[in-house]
What we know:
By secondary structure, the chain is mainly α. It has helices at residues 4-17, 19-46, 51-59, 61-97, 106-121, 130-158, 171-179. It starts with a helix and ends with a helix.
Amino acid sequence: SFIxxxxxxxxxxxxxxxxxxxxxxxxxxxxxxxxxxxxxxxTKFVVSGSFGDxxxxxxxxxxxxxxxxxxxxxxxxxxxxxxxxxxQNLQAFVLGITxxxxxxxxxxxxxxxxxxxxxxxxxxDLAKLSSTALVADAFIFLGxxxxxxxxxxxxxxxxxxxxxLFNSKDFPLFIGQVSx
Length: 180
């Protein structure tokens, strides 16, 4: 569920961190995430309910509200970042197909997305969104195929780029990109 555009940022993230540092840090963060997910699943078998309910049962009502608040903040962050990302890419797409003759401001593209997103957000039964998720998965697959195809073409034309093992200048960007 978290693949989406995160995969699209991974190449630049590895460039920012350096190949060796990025690979080791990525494995470390993945291990911590896996361990945390497994703990959460084990806890879910013992304490039923939502994540907020689990926190409330184990630590009291303050933890329930802290968990629910952090979920709200993180979801607002994800939605905002992805909405801006999609709007900027739509703007670049429009500029590309019109040979830079048509510039649609990003705020209008964000508004157009809201026209689609708000009715979808009102659907409470996630099973009803399965066809929408399938369409999204198809677009992700097409995007990945395009990126891999264009990268293979570039490698064929220019060869493999010089890759640093550790990028001391930009490695904090890598950590921020993969830990979110």
